[in-house]
Structures are given as C-alpha cells and as structure tokens.
Amino acid sequence: MDGNRDVINGLMWLLLCQVAGEVVVRLVGIPVPGPVVGMVLLFGLLQWRKPAPAAGVFRAGDALLRHLQLFFVPAGVGVVTYLAVVRDDALPIAGALVLSWLAGLLVVGWLVTGLRRG
Amino acid sequence: MSETLEWMRTSPVALVALTLLAYRIGCEARDRSGGHALAQPVLVAIVLIGVVLWAADIDYSTYRPGTELIAFWLGPATVALAIPLHRQFARLRGVLLPMLVAVPVGAATSILTAYALVRLLGGDDLLATTMAPKAATTPVSIALSEVAGGIPPLTAVLAIAVGILGAVIGPVVLTIARIRDPRARGLALGATSHGIGTSRALAESEEEGAFAGLSMGLTALATSLLLPVLLVMLRQL
C-alpha cells in the first residue's frame, strides 16, 4: 500500500479501520464510539507502515478533514427541533456552556505551561 | 405541479443539494470576510437551511434521513483524525508529559463542570447528560451523547457553539490568562473547541494549529473513556 496514490484505496483503509473499530467496540462492550477506536487503529497503522506523503490514505483523509464542518451540518440543523428547549432552558444552557468552556481552556493552558516549567 | 413540489420537499437529492449549496455559501462568506471568526461555514449553513426548512414547511424528521449520505462521512472523518496525529508525533518531545496530564484533566474538567453547572442552574439530568460531551469533536460528541442517553442533535449544536466561542474569544482569553507558548495555546483551544477552534489556532500559527488538532483527537479519546465513568459518579451524588 506504500506510495499508492489511489484515493479509493485510501477511503478503503479509513472505512476498514472504522469497521474494525466498530467490531472491537461490540466484542469488548466498551462505551467508546467505533470511529474513535478506528482512529487509534489507523494511528498505529500509520506509525508502523509509514506510507509515502502522497499515499491515498492521506489524500482521502485530508480531503475529509478539510470539510469536516460539512459533515455535521445535518446534525446541527437539528437545532430547529430544539429551539423550544433552548428557549426554556436558556440560563443553564448558556451559563454552563460558557463557564465550562472557560474552565477547560484555562485548566489545559495553565497545566501545560506550569508542567513545562517544572 | 404540486406533485413536483412534494418531490422537491422530500427527495434526498434535493435535500443533499440544499445542504451542499448552503455550506458552499458559508465557505464563500468565510473567504470574502477574510476569515472572520463569526463567518463559520457550518453556522451559516445551519441558519440558511433552517430558514429554508421553515419557509418550505419541511420537518427535521424529513430532512435528517434525506441527508444521511452527508452525515455518513462523520465516521471516516473521525478515523482520519489519526493523520494530523501521525504527522505531529515527532514534534511532541518537549510537551509529551504535560500534554498527557493536561488533556485528560481538561476533558474531565469539561465533563464535570458542564454537568454540574447545568444542574446548578436548574437544568435536568437529560440536559446535563446532553451537555457533558460538548468538548469532544462533534462526530464523537454525537456518538457519546447517544450512548450516554442524551439528545445527540442538541449535543451537536452545543459542540458547534463551544467551537464558535473558541474561535471568537479563545485567543483573547488565553492572552489575558498569560498563556503564551503556542503549544499550550493550541492544546487548550483543541481541548475545548475541537475543529472550529483548531481552524482559528491555525490562523495564529502553524505550530499552534498542529497542537490544537492533536489535542482535539486526544480530547475525543479522553472524553470517550472518561464520560461513562464520570456520569455514573455524578448521578450518584
């Protein structure tokens, strides 16, 4: 597969990793999404095989990641269904969203900075 | 005539075309505004499609299955997050240990504060569960919300909202907090604002963007592993 530039070949590897991830999740019964296990499997494969930079798996993967936003538009449009929920629970939704985001940002930023010094 | 209109309102071809058109307009808006933080293609597309669905009286229950063809690619795209991870692996040395501590702690912080704050501010368990995986990249947060018993489409909307929040005010907040190391800034943005935050980090510097992408992938993994455990603990309080 090294150096193979075929995008279909690349898509095949992405889908095979996803299938393998889904199978692992079902066999082991872990509450992790299949594609995340697939991501770990692909990472292991890439580190092991070190395909050429022009390999199909990179071209297919980069193309998908470039338009990652597009793939969650159908789910995002679901907000029209939940407009009433968002209106009724505006305070817990907006308050928790902003404060929790801020807490996560500062914790990660300060931890990385502090641990690098220490 | 009415039969043709009915076909337009329910055909997957028309609904997928509408989605691609709205996304393209969103990309155009981003490029023409010079990458303005608010001109996120996903936000523009959602608003435009929402207006069209409302005007044409199309239910979300018709729209969503019609656009399954687009949502399908969330899975392979999530698998593809291994690629930036693979490329940046060599540049990790200096921050490997800090990162391996900070990312799981950050993921736990995001889950715990999201759940606790929703409950404290008067929301119910369903809403808190829906909010809990919001820091994971959207395809992962949708899947996690489904497994945990939340409302996946609402989780997606919340994840997109924290992404936009990170793109708009993330860099300013990091500067005020005196977090200047581009690797620390990238890791923080990726851990809380996934793909949309990563695109903003890339605009600051390539190094910051690379670490944001790495952080996004690791946060997705950490959130997947931590969420089920933390939710059990939180619900027993």
Short description:
The complex is a heterodimer of chains A (118) and B (237). With 118 residues, chain A is mainly alpha-helical.
Q: How many strands, which pairing sense, and closed or not: the largest β-sheet of chain B? A: none
- Flag low-confidence runs of chain B: none
- Helical segment count of chain A: 7
Q: What's the oligomerization state?
A: heterodimer
| Number of spatially distinct domains of chain B | 2
Shape of chain B: globular
The N- and C-terminal alpha carbons of chain B lie at a distance of: 59 Å
Cα gyration radius of chain A (Å): 20 Å
Helical content of chain B (DSSP H or I, runs of 4+): over 70%
Number of strands of chain B: 0
Strand content of chain B: under 5%
The best one-word shape of chain A is: extended
| Structural class designation of chain A | mainly alpha
The residue fraction in helices of chain A comes out at over 70%
Query: Which chains share the greatest interface?
Result: A-B, 71 and 108 residues
Q: Work out the radius of gyration of chain B.
A: 19 Å
Number of DSSP strand runs of chain A: 0
Uncertain regions of chain A: pLDDT < 50 for 5+ in a row? Answer: none
Pattern of helices and strands of chain A: HHHHHHH
